């Protein structure tokens, strides 16, 4: 520790007076000296050379090296800590001139330092010199502005931190909710498949039962025929054992019976007696899928709940919205609409033709259409093209087109059909009940257009 202190003291010592720096200045050759020591040396030598390497200085009055000054003052202060001369040291630190130990009263704004009003005043005649109290006041005001800027910046970071915290908690809720809905959807599919499996297994068992009964019935009939034929065969064999007179008296009946049974048609196996495996297994998965399609609902419009305002409640299947009576606690993520009760579609259109319908019912105030992906979701934004929104909207009992002009309809609209031709820059609105066109707007689309829906809370 002593060696380190000695090395540090050597680094902070002036090579002229061999004491700790006072107002040190650094020359271009990187050698440093006390400002007063350097000036004395130059006055004595009649040149502006470095006292150490003799290299000529490029400046007559090199500025104070404040970094080195702070180190030197701090080091000198530690060396004197606890001594009875502490107040004297503190006073010496405030002195800017060794010849004139008065407290500094002037400040040079050009060099950014206090100057001696006696020996240095003439050196600063072309500089902006002000009373030190004024300089301190001005600099403190500047520092207060810097402090305010830092505090504002910190508050912004804290707000973002708070929003991230809210987003983290919200994602946990989203995880649980989405997981629950996924399980519910798959449970429905599993129930359907289970019921379909039981139904088809039941059909298979029913067919097997019918085929088994048919085969059993045919086998019983065949067995009866076999028994009858066996009796006839035994009778004929018995008749053949009789003597002449007895045989002649009875053979006629036996022969008639035998010929009658012989004339019967040969037995035939029934077709379709086996299980129709092809009917039960053929394209089984495809036929089940076709049946499943009849029970499933497809929507061309999927809403993004992360864009929904706090007053907007999006349905579990993400296809409809309603206005809530209370404001939800939702994070202010960048995608969310916070100024108006609006929600955007999960996907946008950047080419091609598209069509979808929106059920507005008897809601008194709504906007339906498209918006730019870059639409302002936080500030003032009217449903007009200059704000990046093209829609049909309703308010105060009237209907307005994309540019805010009143449009007339035959009767109150319950559903709206929206048709987009992105490549032609055309968006149209129709009444799907009678396919009449309500209005059309043409523009130039240059970015992706998500579906836009806005509902006023009443």
From TrEMBL:
It is found in: Cytoplasm. Gene3D superfamilies: 2.60.120.920, Classic Zinc Finger, Zinc/RING finger domain, C3HC4 (zinc finger). GO terms for molecular function: zinc ion binding. Residues 92-132 form the B box-type domain. InterPro entries: B30.2/SPRY, B30.2/SPRY_sf, Butyrophylin_SPRY, ConA-like_dom_sf, PRY, SPRY_dom, TRIM/RBCC, Znf_B-box. Its main location: cytoplasm. Residues 14-54 form the RING-type domain. The keyword Phosphoprotein does not apply. Residues 133-239 form a coiled coil. Pfam families: PRY (PF13765), SPRY (PF00622), zf-B_box (PF00643), zf-C3HC4 (PF00097). SMART domains: BBOX (SM00336), PRY (SM00589), RING (SM00184), SPRY (SM00449). One of its GO terms (cellular component) is cytoplasm. Keywords: Coiled coil, Cytoplasm, Metal-binding, Zinc, Zinc-finger. This is Tripartite motif containing 35-12. It comes from Amphiprion percula.
């Amino acid at each position: 520790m002593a060696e380190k202190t000695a090395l540090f003291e050597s680094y902070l010592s002036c090579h002229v007076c061999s004491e700790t720096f006072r107002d040190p200045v650094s020359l271009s050759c990187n050698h440093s000296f006390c400002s007063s020591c350097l000036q004395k040396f130059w006055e004595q030598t009649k040149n502006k050379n470095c006292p150490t390497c003799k290299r000529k200085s490029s400046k007559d009055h090199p500025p104070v090296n404040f970094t080195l000054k702070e180190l030197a003052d701090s080091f000198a202060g530690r060396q004197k800590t606890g001594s009875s001369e502490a107040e004297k040291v503190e006073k010496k630190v405030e002195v800017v001139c060794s010849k004139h130990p008065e407290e500094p009263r002037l400040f040079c704004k050009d060099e950014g330092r206090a100057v001696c009003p006696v020996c240095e005043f003439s050196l600063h005649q072309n500089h902006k010199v002000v009373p030190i109290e004024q300089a301190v006041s001005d600099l403190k005001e500047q520092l207060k502005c810097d402090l305010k800027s830092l505090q504002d910046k910190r508050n912004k970071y804290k707000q973002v931190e708070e929003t991230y915290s809210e987003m983290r908690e919200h994602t946990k809720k989203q995880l649980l909710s989405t997981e629950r809905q996924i399980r519910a959807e798959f449970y429905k599919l599993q129930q359907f498949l289970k019921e379909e499996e039981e139904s088809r297994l039941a059909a298979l068992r029913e067919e097997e039962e019918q085929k088994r009964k048919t085969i059993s019935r045919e086998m019983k009939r065949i067995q009866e025929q076999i028994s009858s034929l066996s009796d006839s065969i035994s009778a004929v064999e018995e008749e053949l054992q009789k003597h002449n007179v007895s045989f002649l008296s009875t053979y006629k009946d036996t022969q008639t019976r035998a010929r009658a049974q012989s004339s019967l048609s040969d037995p035939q196996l029934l077709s379709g007696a086996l299980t129709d495996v092809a009917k039960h297994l053929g394209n089984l998965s495809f036929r089940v899928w076709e049946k499943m399609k009849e029970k499933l609902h497809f929507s061309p419009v999927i809403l993004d709940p992360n864009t929904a305002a706090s007053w907007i409640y999006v349905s579990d299947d993400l296809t409809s919205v309603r206005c809530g009576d209370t404001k939800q606690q939702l994070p202010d993520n960048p995608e969310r609409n916070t100024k108006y009760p609006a929600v955007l579609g999960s996907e946008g259109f950047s080419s091609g033709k598209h069509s979808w319908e929106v059920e507005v019912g008897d809601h008194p105030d709504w906007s339906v259409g498209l918006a730019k992906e870059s639409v302002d979701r936080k500030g003032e934004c009217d449903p007009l093209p200059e704000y990046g929104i093209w829609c049909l909207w309703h308010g105060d009992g009237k209907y307005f087109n994309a540019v805010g002009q009143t449009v007339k309809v035959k009767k109150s609209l319950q559903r709206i059909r929206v048709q987009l031709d992105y490549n032609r820059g055309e968006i149209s609105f129709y009444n799907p009940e009678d396919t009449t066109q309500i209005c059309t707007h043409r523009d130039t689309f240059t970015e992706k257009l998500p579906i836009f829906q806005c509902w006023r809370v009443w």
